[in-house]
Amino acid sequence: MTARQHKLINQPAAIVDEMLAGFCAAYSDIVRLDGRLVQRAQPKAAGKVGLVIGNGSGHEPAMLGWVGEGLFDVNIAGEIFTAPGPDSIVEGIRAADRGAGVLLCVSHHAGDRLNAEIALELCAAEGINNVDMVLLYDDISSAPPGREAERRGTAGLFFVWKMLGAYCEGQVSLSQAKALAEKARDNTRSLAMSLSSCASPVTGEVMFEIAADEMEIGMGLHGEVGMGRQKSLPADATIDLMLPPILQDLPFTAGDEVLVLLNNSGSLTLMELYILYRRVAQKLAAADIRVYKAWVGAYATTQEMAGFALSLCRVDAQLKALWDAPANGAAMKQL
Q1: Which domains, and CATH codes, for the chain?
Q2: How many C-beta atoms surround the C-beta of residue 244 within 10 A?
Q3: What is the spatial distance between Cα 122 and Cα 106, in angstroms, rounded to a whole number?
Q4: In the predicted structure, residue 2 carries a pLDDT above the cut 80
Q5: Do 154 and 302 touch, CB atoms closer than 8 A?
Q6: pLDDT higher than threshold 80 for residue 223
Q7: pLDDT per residue over 226-276, tens digit each?
Q8: Of 137, 233, 116, which is closest to residue 186 (Cα–Cα)?
Q9: How confident is residue 7, by pLDDT bands cut at 50, 70 and 90?
Q10: Rounded to whole angstroms, what are the CA distances from 25 to 41, 78, 175, 270, 283?
Q11: Burial environment of residue 334 by CB neighbours within 10 A (0 to 12, 13 to 18, 19 or more)
């Protein structure tokens, strides 16, 4: 039996509220806190589409780090690894409303989707009608091609959040905002792997067991089962195993331009990440796929899990311009 893991917290019941208080104190020029709502310190101008996202805590800096200028208006924080409830989502929708409608972004997991759908029903009952939901997913391990809408939302949604946030700084309609989110989503593919588990900060219990000489390909953000376990491989061989199914899934082809994210699940070193990215760059160049921009680091974590997610987003002129647009969030800054 694995021993409980110690974490530097106070009372388990206070984890989320104390974390949010610390986060918003650290970035008070960017965000402010209202209960469990992380909001932009300076709301966007009236007449623009509001953007809301909710998520279970424990994956920081996602998604509270994407609240700010050129990004989300409101992030609704749930309990650890638990989606926020419908009433909290409705509260977030009200807070994000700037008079042009509100788009609720839902990272596809069963609880997130169910609570979001109930929240929209509550909005309708209250006469809040100018609101819509977009379901976001990217994980190729969770459903085969042709069943993309069944896939989980994972680290690659990083691309959607940034480009959608930039788009909604302009004068666009709610339907246009949803269509742009779907375009970015449909051009994004991700695959993750894990070398070790992590402990719940609430209970201290390890989430799952994996042997010291094994790795799992396709692991979800919450430890969901992926494509299966095998003996651990060196860095280059791991990328050689993971990149081809990503490229084949869209498919990405010679001549494409892509954004690349190599996301640290929690405890990999930057040294390891750069070694991994070196191989990604080599393989993409060999396939005549041009990297427009790359990001390497911890953007959607699962506590101290050792592993990474590799995500690619195919971009055209519109998506490149949105990617390059200014943003000012705690975890995403673009000059």
Answers
A1: 14-187 (3.40.50.10440), 188-323 (3.30.1180.20)
A2: 13
A3: 16
A4: no
A5: no
A6: no
A7: 777 899 999 999 999 999 999 999 999 999 999 999 999 999 999 999 999
A8: 137
A9: confident
A10: 11, 19, 35, 27, 42
A11: middle
Catalytic residue (choose from 6, 108, 109, 222): 222
222 is catalytic: yes
pLDDT digit string, tens, across residues 54-93 = 999 999 999 999 999 999 999 999 999 999 999 999 999 9
11-62 pLDDT, tens digit per residue, is 999 999 999 999 999 999 999 999 999 999 999 999 999 999 999 999 999 9
Is residue 108 part of the annotated active site? The answer reads no
Residues present in the chain in total? 335
Look at residues 323, 334, 335, 330 and name the one whose alpha carbon lies nearest to residue 68: 330
Which of 96, 92, 93, 98 lies closest to 48, judged by CA? Answer: 98
Tell me which of 6, 59, 108, 109 is the catalytic residue. 59
> Could you say which DSSP state residue 148 is in?
G
Q: What phi and psi values does residue 11 have, to the nearest 5 degrees?
A: -90, 135
What is the rounded distance in angstroms from the CA atom of residue 20 to the CA atom of residue 291?
35
Nearest to 72 by CA among 90, 89, 49: 49
What does the pLDDT read at residue 1?
39
Locate the DSSP E strands across 127-224. 131-136, 188-194, 214-217
Q: Is the pTM of this model over 0.90?
A: yes
The pairing of beta strand 214-217 with beta strand 188-194: antiparallel
What is the DSSP code (8-state) at residue 150?
Answer: G
